[in-house]
Amino acid sequence: MSASIRGDRWVRLAVVVIVGLALVGGALGIAVRGEHVSAERQRQAKAAAASSVAAILSYRPTTVEAELTRERRLLGQPFAAEFASLVRNEIAPKAKQRGITTKATVVSNGVSLIDGRTVTLLLFVNVATTERTSKEPVVTGSRLKVTVRQDGDRWLIRVGPGVTYSLKECHE
Predict the structure, then answer these.
(1) pLDDT in tens, 84-97
(2) pLDDT tens per residue across span 17-27
(3) What distance in Å separates the CA atoms of residue 74 and residue 58, rounded to the nearest whole number?
């Protein structure tokens, strides 16, 4: 019987070791998948923020209202409503009056914070601005802190507590 008891201990020990290895393997698999999801979320957020910021900071005087109205779909609330007011009251009238054309390019960006479906990024943006009276564009560089939030399969620029924005400075 003592050989049988010892055999049972080895079987129990082997089962415990196998279950332990399975649990560790499962935990590692979940961790690796979590890192992959996080890396994918970062990639998506960076791409969405770069294309959205370039779109809302670029326009031509003849189509400024249509372009920026279309780009409003890239913005979350309440920022979308505030942006519409800014376009209607300041950006469009100045662009038409002075013949302003802007072309924004995001030259670099990086993630500074991920909180669930919300990602905060730092973007380095060059904006080339040409007025009717000038031949050469004036290029200005800016650093923008942008927060995007995943809404289904879309990423929307949002403004929330502690997040500030000033598009006005970029368009004057």
Answers:
(1) 888 889 888 999 99
(2) 676 556 656 55
(3) 14
* Phi–psi pair at 162, nearest 5 degrees: 80, 0
Q: What is the pTM of this model?
A: 0.69
Tokens of 107: 């030259």
- Considering its fold, how many domains does the chain have in total? 1
- Other CB atoms within a 10 A radius of the CB of residue 44 amount to 16
CATH number at residue 78: 3.10.450.50
Strand partners, 146: 121
Residues spanned by the domain of 126: 2-171
d(CA 142, CA 161): 22
Given phi > 0 = left and psi -120 to 50 = alpha, else beta, which region is 16? alpha
